[in-house]
Amino acid sequence: QSNDWEVALRVIDKIEKAGYEAVIVGGAVRDHLLARKIHDVDVATNALPMEIKNIFRNTVDVGIQHGTVIVLDEGCPIEVTTYRTDGTYTDFRRPEEVTFVRDLPKDLERRDFTINAMAYTKDGEIIDLFGGKEDLNNGIIRAVGDANSRFREDALRMLRAVRFAAQLGFSIEESTMNAIQKDSDLIEFIAKERIHMELSKMWVAEYVYLGIKALVESNLALYLPGNFAEHLEAWKPFQAKEPEVGWAYLCLLNRKEMEDIIEFYRYSNKEKSFAKKVIHAYDRFLNRWDEYDYFSNDLTILETAYDFAVWQGKDVPFSKDHIAKVKKLLPIQTMDDFALNGHLLIQWSGKRGGPWVKEALDKALYAVLTGQVKNDEKQLKEWFHNEFIHER
Ligand code: ATP
Ligand code: MG
């Protein structure tokens, strides 16, 4: 049980002592029952945001209009949200406005899936109005209420179903799946940034392949670039600790459409450059890396490219831990270690700067990395005179 959980219970206690009602809701209850790691513990209450602010000394307004106040009093931040129902839905997106309500069932009813719609009271009682516990035990993702209307209210829920399948290894209940299949095209109304967030969670999930399969079966894949149906098998061995690995693998599998994919899914600059570097290293790997590849790429880039080669069924001529060993044994680790620079070259040659400087530096670096010359100013000067002055 996480510290947050204990803190949330203390927050609930204070709210109740002030005469209101409060419970833990949503993902934390689900993860608690599954004995999974709990990220953030959300508290729901019948007190209004201003009433919460009167109970606690230290609060932050994050989304007062959505009913959320962050309470800092007990050590770690706990989000406290007033029971609410969502307002009217337009364009198949979540509404901007919400209505506060005084009873919990209304709040639980607006939640997406039965496993996410349970509440936990201070006394350890589970409030489960939609059979969430049973679905949890059977590994089932089921919409709360009529699946078709729930997905039309907010089309992102379709992708959330797939993401939870990937995280928990659950299957999507039949009528919920049918509803997604029917309305999968509505995903086009959802902001790319939100799609990005869901897929980022999916890449680091335990059962990514199940998620990709659900993406295909649900027809969502028809509206999401990446040719998931065609590449289904390529996702089978995939496992990642960081989302950027998933974004890079998606590019690797769809190289011709890489630029479109980067644009569609709104890759961050970091994700984009990671993808490009890994794919470059992957291509070089297939003709065997040289000292310069080991030098110029971060270890994570090299190791990811190696994983990609394995997942693509390529023959890899060495084990993964070999990579770090080779890299460590290089005569220099970074450019800062390099004993040569352009100024020295210009000084030694008595010539003006020009493109030749970069060319000579590259050549010298390669000579150092391959052990042809020591990384030492005197020896580099000698090497330079032999290579560049005497020969002309
Ligand atoms: P995790 O934090 O592990 O991604 P979570 O279940 O906590 O999973 P959040 O996005 O943090 O998911 O949302 C918290 C809770 O709010 C959910 O458990 C669910 O009850 C509700 N919720 C979130 N998004 C939606 C949505 N689009 N439609 C309906 N309910 C939602
Ligand atoms: Mg959460």
Automatic annotation (TrEMBL):
Alphabetized InterPro entries for the sequence: Bact_CCA-adding_enz_type3_sf, CCA-adding_enz_C, CCA-adding_enz_firmicutes, NT_sf, PolA_pol_head_dom, PolyA_RNA-bd
Binding-site positions, ATP: G27, R30, R111, D154, R157, R160, R163
Keyword Nucleotide-binding attached: yes
Domain CCA-adding enzyme C-terminal: start-end pairs: 239-383
Keywords noted in UniProt: ATP-binding, Magnesium, Metal-binding, Nucleotide-binding, Nucleotidyltransferase, RNA repair, RNA-binding, Transferase, tRNA processing
Residues binding CTP, per UniProt: G27, R30, R111, D154, R157, R160, R163
Protein name: CCA-adding enzyme
